[in-house]
Every structure is written in C-alpha cells, then in structure tokens.
Amino acid sequence: MNRFFGSLLCLATTLALVCQNDAEARVGTWDVGPGAKAKGMGGVAVALPQDAYIGELNPAGAVWVEDRWDAGLQLLSAPRQYTWSNALAGGQVQLQPSHGKKRGYLQCLLLPEAAINYNIDDCSAINIAFYIGGGQTMYKQTNPIAAGGARDQYSHRQGLNLGQYFAAFNYARWITPCHSIGIGLVLVEQTLTVRGLHGFDNPVTSSAPGNVTNRNIDYAFGAAFRIGWIGRIWENITAGASYTTRFADERFNKYKGIICQRGRLDVPAQLAVGITWDWCCCSRVSFEWQRLFYNDVKMWHNSIQRFVGAGGPYQAGSFDGPGFGWDNLDVYKVGADYRWDDCLTLRGGWCVSQIPYNNRQLDVNVMTQNIGKNHLTLGFTYALNPCEEIDFSYFHMFPVNYSGPSQLISSLGTLTQRMYQDSFEISYGRRF
C-alpha cells in the first residue's frame, strides 16, 4: 500500500506541473481513447483493459490490470480555418490572412494524462485516473460572426476555450471467475474563457449584458457516476460496457449572458459498448461503439435558430436560449494489435465519428469548429524490462470541408469550415 500512495503522489505532482489551461476536442469534447495503447488501436478500451488508463472509461477493468501506474503526454496539432462569401458590404470580407480565410492559432498543445491501478486482494481493485477533455478555438482577430456585424468590433481577439479536467476514482470487483463489475466517482473542473463577442453584449441580444465576453477565466465544478462491466463470454471473446451519467455542474456566472440556462454547460452522459476477439496467441481485434448524449444539455443541443439575431424568440443566456446545435454523437472504433516478440507490440486502428452539428449551425460553431470524421491510428509498445515499458501512439484526423448558409440577420452567405488534426503521445508505464 505504501508503494501505491508513493506512486500516486508522484503522478499527481507530475500532472500538476505539466497541466495547462488549454484543451482540445478530438471526438466531440472527448479524446479518441484513454492512453497511448488505446489510441494506437483506434481508441478501443471498454472491452480491452491494457493499463491503468482503463479507469478513464470502464471501472470494471481495474481487476483485469496488474498493479501499475502510467503517465503520458500528448502533443496535438489542430489547425483550422473558415471562409465566407457575400459579406456585409456586398463583397468578400478579407481579414488576415488574405482571401477571406480566417485561421485559428496554430494549436500545438501538450495534454497530460496519468493513472494508477492497485489490486487490494484477489477479488477487488482500485483505480485513479486523471485526464483532460474540452475544446479550444481562438482566433487572432474578430470577424462579422463574433462581432454581430459591428464593424468597429473587428479588432478584438475572438474565440472560446473550454477546459475539462477529470479525476476518476474507481472500484472494481470480480463477481464470477470471468466477470467483473465496477463503479466510479468522476469529478471535473471546467474552465471557460470567451473573447471577442462584443457585438452581442447588449440588452437586445443577451439576457445578462455585461456577462457575455472578455470576463477572464471562469470555473465550474461538477461530478458524475460511472458504472461498468467486463466479462469473458466465450473462450476467446471478451465483452464490456460502461455508462457515465450526465455531470451535475455549477454555472459559469461570468458568462451567463451567452451560455443558456444562465451559464449552465454540463458535461453530457456517455455510453460505451465493445467486444474483443483474441483470434490467435499473439494478436487481438477489438470493436467499440460510443454514444455521447449532447441532446440532454441545452447549451450543447439548442440551435442558433432560437436566437433573436437569427429570427428566433430567445436572447443568448436565457433558459431556452440558443446553443451550439449539437446532436447525440455516435463514434465507431476498431483496432488490432500484434505481439511481434517479448519486447515489441504493434498496433493500428480506425475511428469514425459524425459531425455533431448540421450545416445550418456553422455561425455559432465557428467558436467550437469540431468537424472530425475519420481518424487513422498507429502505435507500439516497447518493453524496457519486465516491469517498465514505453508506449507510443499517433493519429491523423483527415481534413474535412463543411459548408452551409449563414443564419444571422446580417447574412455572411456561405460559410465553409476546414479542419484536420495530428496527435503524438508517449507514455511510460511501470508495474510495482
């Protein structure tokens, strides 16, 4: 037990040193998968516990993993841009860079994660995991969308930064020799910064003017429960499932004039189901389906058509006001690994998701810009010795162009978003 607490203190200190107020969505507001091993296999994990990171998704996996701790660092590059036509003066608005393109900051973010797993006895285990979600889109200069058509506001920096910092505390237990269940308490600290929306900070468009933009960082804390199951249903087939409830979060009071329900932006519920086939002694194939329930959170689900500036009846920030217009998001993952020898394991996979909003919601989603569909993933593990290993993963989200008509009264014509991502993660794992 002393080794457990010593390792936990080391992990917490490391995470605090490298953690930053930036986050970036990969699939919705979530990462592709928990840890470098899962990311290398398309993100599959719910029915394939491989390391302590399983606590980020399925608490039942803790008894399937040995005593160990893992710590990783992800480098994520997520450039994005958008263009528009038929601008306010009857031509094309040209902001930097030229040709009507609006680029976000080059986002090379360092995103840490860490976890520790400890078997209490032959029947039960505990697991603690720290990880990051959220999304960031920040532009160097405001544009007609953010400024609400007010040209004198174009010089302001514009964007949204939503950070989500999770800590999951899990307990798992064998209920039969082949089946385990688990339960977890997940805590989250959300941070929010909104900039450049000066054109909407008035009594006409906002229910709480003065609480719309440039209020510096705001904090909201929340909690949810997670349950999970993993079982060997056939000689070489394992299945798993987990469900995370919708988080009960505090309100962002500094931004209650732009976030509907007077500042409530809860983390949505999540369901994951998967199956793994050990088809030979040195290789496995795993499939996973996830659903993210954005429809249950008004700010995520309500459409821009509710907004008074788009012909609707509601001000921003009101109880049933406009939001991002996202729908429930289905994510499909498939991955395989191959144990080359006692030291090297190779991995590959594919992750497919939808664009969470339709092409009539592009005005507001310039602030979120989340249009990922297809992710190719690769990875490997190299064992340094029987107790230590290094994991590496890479994924590429293929470029997507997404176009649709502007919904604002001062229409910008056709909006086109473009985005791709590249991610590299290295992780160190140690058994104790």
Which descriptors apply to this entry?
Porin; mainly beta; 432 residues
Q: Can you give a write-up of this model?
A:
It is a single chain. This protein is elongated. The longest helix has 17 residues, at 2-18. The protein has six helices and 17 strands. It has a 14-stranded antiparallel β-barrel with strand order 1-4-5-6-7-8-9-11-12-13-14-15-16-17. It has one domain (2-431): Porin. With 432 residues, it is mainly β. A hairpin with a 4-residue loop joins strand 13 and strand 14.
- Roughly how many Å is the radius of gyration? 22 Å
Q: What's the CATH topology name?
A: Porin
Summed over residues and divided by their number, the pLDDT gives a mean of 86
Biggest beta sheet attributes: 14 strands, antiparallel, barrel
Q: According to CATH, what is the class?
A: Mainly Beta
Ends distance: 10 Å
Uncertain runs are 5-21, 89-102
Overall CATH architecture: Beta Barrel
SS summary, helix count: 6
* Series of secondary-structure elements, N-terminal to C-terminal: HHEEEEEHEEEEEHEEHEEHEEE
Helix content: under 10%
Spatial ordering of strands, largest sheet: 1-4-5-6-7-8-9-11-12-13-14-15-16-17
User: How many structural domains are formed by the residues?
Assistant: 1
Fourth-level CATH superfamily = Outer membrane protein transport protein (OMPP1/FadL/TodX)
Total number of strands: 17
* Coarse structural class: mainly beta
| Estimated share of beta-strand residues | over 45%
Shape: elongated
